Amino acid sequence: MKSSKRRLQALTEGSDGLPNYIKMDDSETSIPPVLRSRLHDLFSQIEKEFDLLYAENLNLQEKIDILSEKLERESNIGDRQNQDFIEFETTGKNSKVKLAQSNSQKVKASHKLRVQTSKIVSSFKAPTYNCQLVREFTGHKDGIWDVSSARPGQALFGTASADHTACVWSVEWGKCLLQYTGHSGSVNSIRFHPTRDIALTSSGDNTAHVWQAAVNWDLPRGQSSEEELEGGGEESLGEGGDRPEVLRTPLTELTGHIGVVVAADWLTGGDHVITASWDRTANLYDVETGDCLQILTGHDHELTHASAHHSSRLVVTASRDTTFRLWDFREPIHSVSVFQGHTESVTSAVFTREDKVVSGSDDRSVKVWDVRNMRSALATIRSDSSVNRVGVSSTGLIAIPHDNRQVRLFDLQGQRLARLPRSSRQGHRRMVTSVAWAEDLSNINFFSCGFDRRILGWSIQPSKEN
């Protein structure tokens, strides 16, 4: 509930935290200037008080995380010790296995078994990963809702922000090369076309836009991101004399929704687009004409996410009604399957390369599903915080961003692999909203973004001992 309220608030507020109805021009409001000024002062004081409370909360959360990790380690040690209490007794041709109830029941054979059990446990241990922060990208003036990597071969990624802009960034230079300002509301998602230099964004202005995403590589490089990170400074867009190119006009505007459009994605081939809206529908559009081909209905509450399969005409939509739906457009008459397994709002659902679906929810769980069997999940991952937009790599690594600023990595079997560092110098300072893999890049292969207005570029590699 708290997470949903925060998202609703962020989509209705401006970049400085003031409600949009207060941020009107003089010609658009009847509020006297003196009263407007007083309201600005009051909201500024509220914001300062909130920042102080938030800082105190972060410090307490850090202490809780340290204690939780300590308890988790002790629990794992206890589990391994319990496994050592298994005894084997053999009588003639009959063998039986029993679990000892206390230390007094252990016999000499258990010592030999302890060594064997340790070897078995270690053989099933999941590989570990080294997660290192490489680069920090700053410049947005409000929280960032989404991050997406460009098509293979391009060292670019895109971001969608509540500051009403979308940006295309150079991974190498650490700079925004193109800023799209065509939306009049919060930009909630961004996706790049699979083969062309165009991008797709969805917005709180009830539309989705297709726009030219070709960048100007001749822009000045300016200061390197490594120097910015080491110096601890944050550079806004346009500082240092190397302003990004600004684009204001879309190639195509996709209209028809009567509510906020929270997500949009390209279907395989890039000729069609799927959008998800708070009006409880998902729309299928023809990109060339901008026509709405189909309106997909059935969800009982607002939609929260939509994602398309990388090679088949399949789409998943997620909703606050605790379900997600699989839409199959491979036949002239589409079919739909409903997946029920969460107890709160489903915040995202994405396909894997293995034709599975990974869903995340405000019920603090992530589930892995087989698209051919929707009766029960293949694996369930439980956490201590609401889940935002998950990302799955081509090798099956699930990255889970949380409201509590954590990003955790799991495999498709639900085995925990790693947690991204989270400290005063590394990690996000507010909730992490989205993540994206960029596996064709050598130095940085993973991005995370959040409501601290930052994008972090990470190197995630298997540990050498694996």
Detailed description of the structure:
It comes from Parnassius mnemosyne. It is found in: Cytoplasm; Nucleus. The structure is a single chain. With 466 residues, this protein is an alpha+beta fold. The chain has helices at residues 2-12, 33-84, 108-123, 225-231, and strands spanning 86-91, 94-99, 129-138, 144-149, 156-161, 166-170, 175-180, 187-192, 198-203, 208-212, 245-247, 252-254, 261-266, 272-277, 282-286, 292-296, 303-308, 314-319, 323-328, 335-340, 346-351, 356-361, 365-370, 379-382, 391-392, 398-401, 407-410, 416-419, 432-437, 446-450, 454-462. The strands form 8 sheets. The protein has a 5-stranded mixed beta sheet with strand order 4-5-6-7-11, with no helix packed on it. A 4-stranded antiparallel beta sheet has the order 3-31-30-29. Strand 26 (398-401) and strand 27 form a beta hairpin. Helix 2 (33-84) crosses helix 3. It is globular. The relative contact order is 0.11. Mean pLDDT is 82; it is low at 15-23, 79-124 and 222-235.
